[in-house]
Design goal:
Number of strands: 0
Strand content: under 5%
Low-confidence stretches: 1-15, 29-34
Helix content: over 70%
Number of helices: 12
Distance between the termini: 28 Å
């Protein structure tokens, strides 16, 4: 299940094409194309090894487990109580923003208790908050006039096979974007001078393109995640053990996708 991938991505969607947005020459010509290609190569090499380590990270595994429990809770009449049982305590008339904040707190508490804070965990934490905010706020009436009923309905839409596929793609797209940005910042810190670093940091267009690229790349696990979610919930119920196994396969698929993109650059 879930073996469909994008195939050869359009040239403008490859990592190298995205990174080339950084090659637009400034008025003083401080950023050159040769630098950009070298940065892209180093960033991708770093990402391959780092993604392998991500499979073992307790923070990432718990964050994804929490994502499954949030949408499953929305199926129940006592959904707020169910969320409270996993450390997510929502106020009355909670909004998508409230949910994102409380989810962050629940992850913080887990990481503090386990004593396993890591860069990967923080990236996963940021990714789930972003995914929940974007998808639940889109489905509620208003951010400023929140309704718990609207929030539950928005979450319930993502508790189906198709809905969870969308949510999972959004989460992993966010995760890969933040992950590559993390490695890119480390690579550029060792490769470029301060003036060029400042220029890179100001390229909002690059960041938007990177986000879009990573969401496209995460399509490789879209169908896989929906199939896994539906089958696992029906057969045995989703728990931390089987979400850990899912993460290992999902990361392997993402690594394969990035490697194919690098080879096609």
């Amino acid at each position: 299940m879930g073996h469909t991938r994008l195939g050869l991505m359009p040239k403008t969607r490859k990592w190298r094409a995205v990174i080339e947005l950084m090659a637009r020459e400034s008025s003083d010509g401080s950023l050159m194309a040769d630098d950009v290609h070298d940065i892209a190569r180093k960033a991708l090499e770093a990402a391959q090894a780092g993604l392998e380590n991500a499979k073992k990270d307790p923070g990432l595994k718990y964050t994804f487990y929490l994502l499954t429990q949030i949408v499953l809770a929305a199926r129940r009449d006592n959904w707020v109580e169910c969320l409270g049982n996993i450390g997510i305590n929502l106020p009355r008339n909670a909004s998508g923003f409230d949910l994102a904040c409380e989810t962050q707190l629940a992850i913080d508490n887990f990481i503090s208790h386990e004593g396993m804070r890591s860069d990967i965990a923080e990236i996963a934490q940021k990714s789930i908050g972003q995914a929940l905010s974007e998808l639940t706020i889109r489905g509620t009436a208003s951010l400023f006039e929140p309704s718990s009923a609207d929030l539950q309905m928005a979450l319930r839409e993502h508790s189906t096979k198709t809905g969870f596929s969308d949510l999972s793609q959004k989460f992993f797209g966010n995760f890969v974007a933040h992950f590559l940005n993390f490695y890119l910042s480390r690579v550029t810190a060792g490769s470029l001078d301060t003036q060029r670093l400042k220029q890179l940091g100001d390229l909002n267009e690059f960041n938007r393109a990177l986000q879009l690229h990573c969401e496209q790349s995460a399509r490789i696990i879209r169908d896989f995640s929906g199939d896994w979610y539906s089958k696992t919930e029906y057969q045995e119920g989703i728990n931390q053990a089987n979400t850990t196994r899912f993460i290992a396969v999902a990361i392997k698929k993402i690594k394969s996708e990035l490697e194919k993109q690098k080879e096609g650059s």
